[in-house]
Amino acid sequence: MRDFFTTYWNDFLGRFDGPLHFRLIMQPLMATLFAVRDGRRDAREGRGAYLWSLTSDAAQRAYLLRDGIKGIGKVFVLAFVLDDAYQFIEWHGLKPLQGLLTAVVLAVIPYVLLRGPVNRVARMIAAPPRR
After folding, report:
1. Contact present, 124 and 104 (Cβ < 8 Å)
2. Within 10 A of 55 (CB to CB), how many other CB atoms are there?
3. Is the per-residue pLDDT at 112 higher than 80?
């Protein structure tokens, strides 16, 4: 298992020099934009922070998972397909598990980590000042 992560890390760093390297900037940016959109919507609807609610509120968990998949699903699929294209172009073969892990790193992690803080900031901006 350690060999897998060592190989993955070395291969991941190699993606910055290879073809399609621009996606390593664009996919986290798109995930961030979707997180901002969904975090602002959460703030308008009075929901709690996404990751916190996902882990602590069992009643909301199924809804939040569906909503998160709906929000980031297209970016995740695009990240996976582009990484597989990169692998085929660069290595003339496929490592699908590395493609999934790369898609998670480029799309899911930025989305999940930013949606809650955006919600909090949007609530603070929208809240009337205290006197």
Report:
1. no
2. 10
3. yes
